[in-house]
């Protein structure tokens, strides 16, 4: 009997942590109960991008999209949808204005505005099935590449305009050509999957959802540069990606798509995993090479560049996951298909992890040249709770913040650099009016100070020093000289640090100083946090006119700072208050006010 | 098995595509067979199997076959609803094996509605 329904259930990291596995089990139990297991197939796929709606599933042939599922929903889905053919309305996606959208991927801007190249198979195929990957033209590009000369493959990539998706945007074809031309008995290709930016999960999702694309891209790259061994440097914090990559490598070896004499061409190539311990600095290529060699992960002086002397002193190419995943597409469809998308200098698409204060958090792939406004408001659905957009942070701890006036900037490598930030690997953190920009800079600096390997002085000492100044400012003890020192330090570290981590660590500070200097000055001069976020500079007070004496705040207060009798006005003891904000959240009468501390102390 | 040629790859692709065919989005149409107690006792199971077999035989894979409960027309069971494209759905009554074959042949393939099997909306 043929299949009546195929259910694709998202098994990306986001949905798994939201409870996908128990939903799937409940669904399978219900399906068995009604003896539908012969006609309904449940497939776990990679990330379907809309992480904020998980766990989610799509039921075909209708293409109905169900979201925010619980195990208890399984019974209704089976009885109503599968047995009776009636769509379960309450589980459908509802747009911001409440309209129901049964076929999400065809009707919701979050999906329709995306152009999927790197994420072409995510949420479509079963990542554990090489046959499904092949059915989507997988490994055809490798076959095609092997029928070309390595020089032709490099030429194709060069003409496509593909640039590294890991950060700096170096042209991939050129990198391959330089390594190809380096004379050596052995060469290596390493995939940098040490995704470490806070809030970024593009590479993880691609490895989890479509591991074969990466392997195919690596084999093509290996052929182009003349390498026979590839390594994927992936962090131990990505157990699911590691598991699925292991399965994929095993399957590819069984079919002879990795190993000796691939497609009878005489070309040998194999891939192994190298598991990193999760140090941020190991995403820097020279430190990564040290780590793959089994040494302590610390950067070394460049030049020589890895293209001349990399892993075990052999010429080595290091490419990011997304870069390599784009390669099979370019070989299959031709460089023109890729180069026709994007801007003059940045071709193709880019995957972003859209997170923070935005309605549709998740994975988004858009053509280069899409504006930040389209990305955040059209695809991302805008800012939740009617709040005002303040800034977007790109490039992680190496990047910077972009304020509202530049929202119409088309996204490409050059435009982001000119705004004082970087493309980076694709983390995009949206911030609203409640975010304090000084605190954001402090957060990222705390991260880089923690992750500094300590080899060079500017980074080891400089980031610590900058952090202590920022701490001073958010606590309300900063002076105007501190801001100046912060700038001097930032510029010095940028110029003198050994590796990319140190050289870019001051970027969050420099860019927030550039666009939000007034916030720094408010902290210093007025002892005021404009976003009312820095605890040392705010205070809570109860408005006697609005307080009904419901006692909700007093019950919520963890330190017993709120006193008052039932149905009488309550008050907050400023001495005891730790500014946790619990009273502010529980009050249903808007009686608790969040104020500048200076204002409250002036009153009392 | 080792893949050594384009032909080997094509073969696996074809097998794999069968797996994927169920998730290519919208179908051209759908046939709903009422499978309430009344329908089943009137022979709806045979009707359903016949429709599936006939579609298979003719290589039609863009029509979904769905089961539903009783649609309230117990006196003319087995009933079958056919919906093709954007057309108004059509309900046929007393659909046995022969009628099911005709529906696939004449309506699904030929595009002609079978007037004699149609369930009239109002009383005759």
Structure, described:
The complex is a heterodimer of chains A (604) and B (124). Helices cover 40% and strands 16% of the residues of chain A. Chain A is an alpha/beta fold and 604 residues long. In chain A, the strands form 6 sheets. In chain A, strands 9-10-8-7-11 form a 5-stranded mixed β-sheet, sandwiched between helices. Chain A has a 5-stranded mixed β-sheet with strand order 13-12-16-14-15. Chain A has a 4-stranded mixed β-sheet with strand order 2-1-3-4, covered by helices on one side. Chain A is globular, with a radius of gyration of 27 Å. The mean pLDDT of chain A is 92. With 124 residues, chain B is α+β, with helices and mostly antiparallel strands. Chain B has a single domain (24-121), classed as Glutaredoxin (3-Layer(aba) Sandwich). Chain B has helices spanning 6-20, 37-41, 44-57, 97-109; strands at residues 29-34, 63-68, 80-84, 90-92. In chain B, strands 2-1-3-4 form a 4-stranded mixed β-sheet, with helices on one face. In chain B, helix 3 (44-57) packs across helix 4. The radius of gyration of chain B is 18 Å and the shape is elongated.
Write the layout of secondary structure elements.
The complex is a heterodimer of chains A (604) and B (124).
Chain A: E1 5-10, H1 13-17, H2 20-33, E2 40-45, E3 57-60, E4 64-66, H3 74-84, E5 93-94, E6 100-101, H4 104-107, H5 109-112, H6 130-135, H7 140-146, H8 150-160, H9 172-181, E7 188-193, H10 202-209, H11 211-225, E8 229-235, H12 239-254, E9 259-262, E10 267-276, H13 285-292, E11 316-320, H14 321-333, H15 335-339, E12 349-356, E13 362-367, H16 372-379, E14 389-394, E15 400-403, H17 413-418, E16 427-432, H18 437-451, H19 457-474, H20 480-496, H21 500-504, H22 507-515, H23 517-525, E17 538-542, H24 552-556, E18 562-563, E19 571-572, H25 582-586, E20 592-596, H26 597-603
Parallel strand pairs in A: 1-2, 7-8, 7-11, 8-10, 12-16
Antiparallel strand pairs in A: 1-3, 3-4, 5-6, 9-10, 12-13, 14-15, 14-16, 17-20, 18-19
Helix pairs in contact in A: 2-3, 7-11, 7-14, 8-9, 8-11, 10-11, 10-12, 11-14, 18-19, 19-20, 20-22
Chain B: H1 6-20, E1 29-34, H2 37-41, H3 44-57, E2 63-68, E3 80-84, E4 90-92, H4 97-109
Parallel strand pairs in B: 1-2
Antiparallel strand pairs in B: 1-3, 3-4
């Amino acid at each position: 009997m043929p299949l009546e329904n195929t259910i694709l259930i998202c098994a990306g990291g986001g949905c798994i942590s939201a409870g996908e596995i128990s939903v799937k089990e409940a669904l399978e139990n219900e399906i068995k109960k009604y003896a539908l297991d012969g006609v309904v197939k449940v497939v776990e796929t990679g990330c379907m991008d809309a992480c904020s709606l998980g766990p989610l599933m799509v039921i075909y042939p209708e293409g109905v999209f169900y979201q925010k599922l619980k195990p208890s929903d399984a019974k209704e889905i089976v009885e109503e949808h599968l047995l009776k053919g009636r769509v379960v309305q309450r589980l459908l996606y509802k747009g911001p204005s409440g309209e129901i959208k049964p076929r999400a991927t065809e009707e919701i801007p979050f999906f329709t505005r995306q152009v999927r190249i790197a994420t072409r198979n995510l949420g479509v195929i079963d990542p554990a099935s090489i046959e499904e990957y092949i059915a989507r033209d997988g490994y055809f590009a490798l076959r095609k590449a092997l029928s070309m000369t390595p020089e032709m493959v490099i030429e194709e990539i060069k003409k496509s305009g593909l640039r590294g998706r890991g950060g700096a945007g170096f042209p991939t074809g050129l990198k391959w050509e330089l390594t190809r031309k380096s004379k050596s008995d052995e060469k290596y290709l390493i995939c940098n999957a040490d995704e470490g930016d806070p809030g970024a999960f593009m590479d993880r999702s691609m490895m989890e959802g479509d591991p074969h694309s990466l392997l195919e891209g690596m084999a093509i790259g290996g052929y182009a540069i003349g390498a026979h061994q590839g390594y994927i440097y992936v962090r131990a914090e990505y157990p699911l990606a590691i598991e699925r990559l292991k399965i994929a490598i095993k399957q590819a070896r069984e079919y002879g798509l990795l190993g000796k004499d691939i497609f009878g061409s005489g070309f040998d190539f194999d891939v192994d995993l190298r598991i990193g311990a999760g140090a941020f600095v190991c995403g820097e290529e020279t430190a990564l090479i040290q780590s793959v060699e089994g040494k302590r992960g610390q950067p070394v002086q460049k030049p020589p560049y890895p293209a001349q002397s990399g892993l075990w002193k052999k010429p080595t190419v290091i490419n990011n996951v997304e870069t390599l995943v784009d390669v099979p597409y370019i070989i299959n469809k031709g460089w023109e298909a890729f180069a026709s998308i994007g801007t003059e200098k940045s071709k193709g698409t880019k995957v972003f992890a859209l997170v923070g204060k935005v309605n549709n958090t998740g994975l988004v792939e858009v053509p280069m040249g899409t504006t930040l406004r389209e990305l955040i408001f059209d695809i991302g659905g805008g800012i939740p709770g009617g709040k005002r957009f303040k800034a977007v942070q790109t490039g992680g701890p190496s990047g910077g913040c972009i304020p509202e006036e530049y929202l119409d900037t088309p996204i490409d490598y050059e435009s982001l650099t000119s705004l004082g930030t970087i493309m980076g690997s694709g983390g995009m953190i949206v911030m609203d009016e409640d975010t304090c920009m000084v605190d954001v800079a402090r957060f990222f600096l705390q991260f880089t100070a923690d992750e500094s390997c300590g080899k060079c002085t500017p980074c080891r000492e400089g980031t610590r020093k900058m952090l202590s100044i920022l701490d001073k400012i958010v606590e309300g003890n900063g002076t105007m000289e501190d801001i100046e020192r912060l700038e001097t330090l930032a510029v010095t570290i940028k110029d003198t640090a050994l590796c990319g981590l140190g050289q870019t660590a001051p970027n969050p500070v420099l860019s927030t100083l550039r666009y939000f200097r007034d916030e720094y000055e408010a902290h210093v001069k007025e002892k005021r946090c404009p976003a009312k976020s820095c605890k040392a500079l705010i205070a809570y007070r109860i408005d006697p006119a609005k307080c009904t004496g419901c006692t909700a705040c007093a019950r919520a207060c963890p330190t017993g700072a709120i006193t008052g009798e039932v149905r009488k006005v309550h008050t907050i003891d400023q001495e005891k208050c730790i500014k946790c904000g619990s009273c502010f959240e529980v009050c249903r009468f808007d009686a608790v006010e969040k104020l500048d501390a200076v204002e409250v102390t002036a009153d009392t | 098995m080792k893949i050594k040629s384009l032909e080997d790859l094509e073969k696996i692709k074809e097998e794999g595509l069968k797996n994927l065919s169920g998730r290519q989005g919208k179908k051209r149409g759908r046939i709903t067979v009422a499978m309430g107690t009344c329908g089943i006792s009137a022979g709806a199971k045979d009707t359903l199997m016949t429709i599936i077999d006939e579609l298979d035989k003719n290589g039609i894979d863009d029509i979904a076959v769905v089961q539903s409960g009783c649609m309230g027309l117990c006196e003319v069971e087995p009933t079958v609803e056919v919906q093709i494209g954007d057309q108004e759905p059509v309900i046929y009554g007393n659909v046995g094996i022969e009628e099911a074959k005709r529906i696939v042949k004449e309506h699904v393939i030929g595009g002609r509605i079978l007037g004699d099997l149609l369930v009239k909306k109002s009383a005759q």
